[in-house]
């Protein structure tokens, strides 16, 4: 059995106390390989562990230290931010093998069935043509830069033009890609923390 000690401290003795940015943290990791350093970004929506909750409660510049008889692990909070995230579900259509009439008919069918009350997740499983269909077409919470720019132009930059649970279409004709999108969440600020982790053998 080994006991675990958890406490917060203002600084760590040595060069760790001077680290105040992501760049400095990564340079420290590179320069001190014996400390098994790692750099993490914790997202309050995605990370619900006891450790994550304790780190979110720790102020910038402070450290959490966990110690047992074999090692001491230090987590230093480098920064805290709020990032705007977006979420939607979509049906992806690749029109490589569809003529214009077939594509138009397919879109009309999907819109019609949704407006008649058919569950969008069921439509996704039936009609979507990419791997995300197996996950119900859900984008998950995502940030700017993670989706095709044409999709982000509508979901992010023109977000106010679209209402929750209303369908809209984004076409990328030069690639024969077509998205029928359901906005499922309003934009949400989610807290994130940047953390430097080092482990010392005792």
Average pLDDT figure: 90
Q: Residue share in helices?
A: 10-25%
Beta-strand content estimate: 25-35%
How many individual helices?
5
CA distance, first residue to last residue: 16 Å
Return residue spans where pLDDT drops below 50 for at least 5 consecutive residues: 1-5
The H/E string reads: EHEHEEEHHHEEE
The outline comes out as elongated
Compute the CA-based radius of gyration.
23 Å
Which structural class matches the secondary elements?
Answer: alpha+beta
Number of strands: 8
**Strand order in space, largest sheet:** 1-3-4-8-2
Largest sheet: 5 strands, antiparallel
Please explain how this structure is put together.
With 202 residues, this protein is α+β, with helices and mostly antiparallel strands. The chain has 5 helices and 8 strands, in the order βαβαβββαααβββ. It has helices at residues 22-31, 50-56, 100-115, 120-127, 149-157; strands spanning 5-9, 38-43, 63-67, 71-85, 88-94, 167-172, 177-183, 188-201. A 5-stranded antiparallel β-sheet has the order 1-3-4-8-2. The protein has a 3-stranded antiparallel β-sheet with strand order 5-7-6, with helices on both faces. The chain is elongated. Residues 1-5 have low confidence and may be disordered.
């Amino acid at each position: 059995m080994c006991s675990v000690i958890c406490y917060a401290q203002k600084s760590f003795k040595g060069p760790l106390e001077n680290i105040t940015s992501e760049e400095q943290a990564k340079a420290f990791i590179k320069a001190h390989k014996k400390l098994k350093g790692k750099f993490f970004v914790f997202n309050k929506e995605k990370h619900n562990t006891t450790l994550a909750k304790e780190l979110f409660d720790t102020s910038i510049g402070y450290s959490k230290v966990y110690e047992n008889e074999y090692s001491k692990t230090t987590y230093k909070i480098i920064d805290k931010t709020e990032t705007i995230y977006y979420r939607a579900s979509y049906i992806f259509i690749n029109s490589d093998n569809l003529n214009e009439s077939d594509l138009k008919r397919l879109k009309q069918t999907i819109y019609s069935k949704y407006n008649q009350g058919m569950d969008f997740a069921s439509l996704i499983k039936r009609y979507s043509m990419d791997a995300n269909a197996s996950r119900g077409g859900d984008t998950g919470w995502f940030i700017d830069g993670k989706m095709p720019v044409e999709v982000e132009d509508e979901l992010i930059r023109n977000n106010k033009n679209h209402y929750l649970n209303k369908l809209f279409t984004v076409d990328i004709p030069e690639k024969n890609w077509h998205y029928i999108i359901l906005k499922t969440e309003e934009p949400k600020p989610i807290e994130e923390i940047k953390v430097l982790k080092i482990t010392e053998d005792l």
